[in-house]
Amino acid sequence: MGALERTLPDLHEDVLPILAEPALEPDLEMVHTRNHIGRVRSACEQALETGQIIKVDDDTVVSPGSWNAALAAVGCGFAAVRDVLSGRQLGGFCPIRPPGHHATQDRAMGFCLFNNVALAARRALANPSVSRVLIADWDVHHGNGTQDIFYEDPSVFFFSMHQSPLYPGTGAVTETGRGSGEGFTRNLPMAPGLPSSQYVGAFLEGLDHVLNGFEPDFVLISAGFDAGIEDPLGGFTLEQDDFAILTRAVVEKTRATANGRVVSFLEGGYNSAELGRNVASHLTTLRDVLV
Ligand SMILES: [Zn+2]
After folding, report:
1. Known catalytic residue at 102
2. Which tens digits make up the pLDDT trace of 10-24?
3. Rounded to two decimals, what is the model's pTM?
């Protein structure tokens, strides 16, 4: 807790909380099928009517508050993209639930209802100043939903480091995109239990490869802190300083073309004390490098 207590007072002076408007249901169609949106809405309505938890996937449920939470999460990403594009904010972090990177066009899975980061990418690409978006995903699980959504799309590069084997089982090095999207997906599956320097080194090297052929003008991070050493769902060993290195690298290595236009999204993270420490480290680093 020491680091958290040291860090938060500093952050309060530099981080401006923004209360975002919830997204509207039609906004979700930028990424998701009407069938998927309707299924999630029906399940949420059923939860609201019965006061029960409703299952929408083997390991994904909704509660009476899920519909509003999901639209607020998507809206948070939209607001961050808007404020960074307008120059009102130097960067953004969306501390949202539910997470999003497992949600595909047509399916809720892995605690994810709608793909927050993919929707933000589409929203950014709707701006004339944005033509190439990098999504860097260091959640311990593979962001299969984000990969699927942009698999044939060369305007979005999806770069993921994740544990293998682990849920959801996708994310092999051979998955590199399809059609005009071929070469715009890069996966780094890693064994669990390695020293954290190996994960950090692999991520930095992989990012260099990505940026060797792709010049993003906007950057999104799927910041999953279940890659932390104490997380109950993953076997990675990252600590506060490691997340600071990853954060700094994403901002600095893309600065030449993205000019610090970076918005980060909370994905996984299931040890709450550790999650707090690592988010504080991530935010402190964003504050320090986005100047
Ligand atoms: Zn995860």
Report:
1. yes
2. 687 888 888 899 999
3. 0.96
